[in-house]
């Protein structure tokens, strides 16, 4: 990681780009627990490098309670990703809407695995100042809804596609088109992403799409088969603080709340 301070004060505190600071901050916060679920110390190092009004962000994202949401979600996706990479040492990884996530460093795959992180150009410009490119690691500044960027990625390997905290910001038409382009470009692989409950999408203006369940996505793209769909509350036992474990236990018992954050794994 680079070491000089990076000025994020110009990032507007509305709009989708801002959200990457929220998830980064929550992961950094969680990494400081005595027994973290994810323990993303790279996030903590990145936060230390960023010049931003984190007190204001803290009031907005309420890390004491929300840290578990991002940690449980990311941990499940990391576990699936590790499992895929263990089964496919000849794989390539494509992460969409990467923000300032450190998954590439957390998983640290074999030197032979090429890894591509994609986000909009203004985010990739900031990201490059925190995480340097290295052998077999490339960042691509493009909107996933645009044409062109996917053709830069070689198609000959089994691919692991991770889209965490991204698809809910796209319309259903944009998601369908993106998934079609991905399954047309790559012959085989797995797609990991998280979905929110339908009611959250109706309530929050920035959010646009959420699958009702894995079948919804299979109907959207018949090349995809849902292999797993896991509400993050399923892993509530990993929460190291009893009070929050109890809250997640309650959430798990209520279907509408259990659906509020679900991790999906698809094969194709
Ligand atoms: C909630 S953040 C998640 C970031 C990261 N995956 C994480 O978990 O910390 C959403 C990310 O999606 C990116 N994003 C939103 N729309 C995008 C698009 N059309 N193309 C590429 N990236 C997009 C944003 O710039 C932002 O980095």
From TrEMBL:
A Pfam family that the UniProt record links to this protein: LCM
Keyword Cytoplasm: no
Keywords: Methyltransferase, Transferase
Glycoprotein in keyword set: no
Protein name, as recorded: O-methyltransferase-like protein
Organism: Microbispora corallina
